[in-house]
Write a structure and sequence with these properties.
This protein has 287 residues and is α/β, with parallel strands linked by helices. The chain has 2 domains: 127 residues, Leucine Dehydrogenase, chain A, domain 1 (Rossmann fold, 3-Layer(aba) Sandwich), CATH 3.40.50.10860; 150 residues, Rossmann fold (3-Layer(aba) Sandwich). 36% of the residues lie in helices and 20% in strands. The chain has 10 helices and 12 strands. The strands form 2 sheets. Strands 2-1-3-5-6-4 form a 6-stranded mixed β-sheet. The protein has a 6-stranded parallel β-sheet with strand order 9-8-7-10-11-12, sandwiched between helices. Strand 11, helix 8 and strand 12 form a beta-alpha-beta unit. Helix 1 packs across helix 9, helix 4 crosses helix 9 and helix 5 runs parallel beside helix 6. The relative contact order is 0.14. It binds NADP nicotinamide-adenine-dinucleotide phosphate. NADP nicotinamide-adenine-dinucleotide phosphate (NAP) binds next to helix 5 and helix 9.
Length: 287
């Protein structure tokens, strides 16, 4: 395959909407580059990365199943990517391939920019302890939250994530690191009653996911003064967000994070400010 410009690698890749909003951003700035979707199998990753190194390209986005496997092919990874143990963006810096993970930054920028929520000093409940749960927990710790409760179906994974996050405070900042507690899903209702922010980092409610109709929480257990943030972006209105509205809580869907993590990647590749509004509009239309 001909590698040039910029694009996303994954397997399969046909559901990605990144090409739509990234191309809109490139066109907005009249940058002469095409954003492509490259279907790369696990066996083909080594050849692709060798090609990328030789190519006249800005970089790539990396999605499932290559986010960890791509790391040995890079010359450098930034702090976010090494903390996450996963890379979602590579940019070509002269001859070097540099790995980043923009999920955490995208999550916080969307939280502040779209929902107007200031994380510092707040109490958060994260549901899920997979890849996105990890990015969100680390980002909230860096943003100076007071406490993080991590609820997960598999309690051991919540415990491992809590260990990874414990002791990490905002930097720079005088605050203490957050208190972090892992709990089982059965205790989620009780935990939700005393938090300011609830984030769904599971696949519950996701179209074509394991349980499309499920919400991790019912309205009765959602505080009306909390913000409920669902990382699931398809459908835009998830079962959890409907429950949150019933409870009178504020809501934020996952599309904002998707666009903001893409905006951060765009800035690494091009060095120019990402046109977030343009990208958001294109992403909404693509869904
Ligand atoms: N908006 C964005 O930019 C963005 C970015 C990343 C991800 N996401 C979305 O976030 C969701 C999670 O992605 P991920 O990459 O973190 O996935 P992942 O690493 O596979 O983790 C999946 C999580 O969902 C839990 N889970 C799965 N099925 C469940 C069920 N039936 N009941 C209860 N818990 C269940 C898993 O629990 P166990 O540990 O017990 O298996 C785990 O915590 C996806 O819907 C994805 O589309 C959105």
């Amino acid at each position: 395959m001909m590698v040039q410009g910029v694009g996303i690698i994954g397997y399969p890749i046909r559901h990605s909407i990144s090409p739509v909003f990234q191309q809109a951003a490139l066109d907005h700035h009249s940058l002469d580059a095409t954003y492509q979707a490259w279907e790369v199998t696990p066996e083909g990753l080594g050849d692709f990365m060798a090609e990328l190194r030789r190519a006249d390209a800005l970089g790539i986005n990396v999605t499932v199943p290559h986010k960890e496997a791509v790391i040995p092919y890079l010359d450098e990874v930034d702090g976010w990517a090494s903390d996450a143990g996963a890379v979602n963006t590579v940019h070509k810096d002269g001859g070097a391939l540099v790995g980043h993970n923009t999920d955490g930054i995208g999550f916080v920028r969307a939280l502040e920019g779209e929902a107007g929520f200031a994380p510092r000093g707040s109490r958060a409940l994260i549901v899920g302890a997979g890849g996105s749960g990890r990015a969100v927990a680390l980002a909230l710790a860096r943003s100076g939250v007071a406490s993080i409760t991590i609820a997960n179906r598999t309690l051991r994974r919540a415990g491992d994530l809590a260990d990874a996050v414990s002791g990490r405070g905002a930097s720079p900042g005088p605050e203490r690191p957050p208190e972090v507690e892992p709990i089982s899903l059965e205790r989620i209702a009780e935990a939700a009653s005393s938090v300011d922010l609830i984030v769904n980092c599971t696949t519950l409610g996701m179209r074509h996911g394991p349980d499309e109709a499920a919400s991790p929480l019912k309205a009765d257990h959602i505080p009306s003064n909390a913000l409920v943030y669902d990382l699931v972006y398809n459908p835009p209105d998830t079962p959890l967000l409907m429950e949150a509205r019933k409870a009178g809580a504020a809501t934020l869907g996952g599309l904002a994070m998707l666009v903001y993590q893409g905006a951060a990647a765009f800035e690494y590749w091009t060095g120019v400010e990402a046109p977030v509004e343009v990208m958001m509009k294109a992403a909404r239309a693509a869904l």
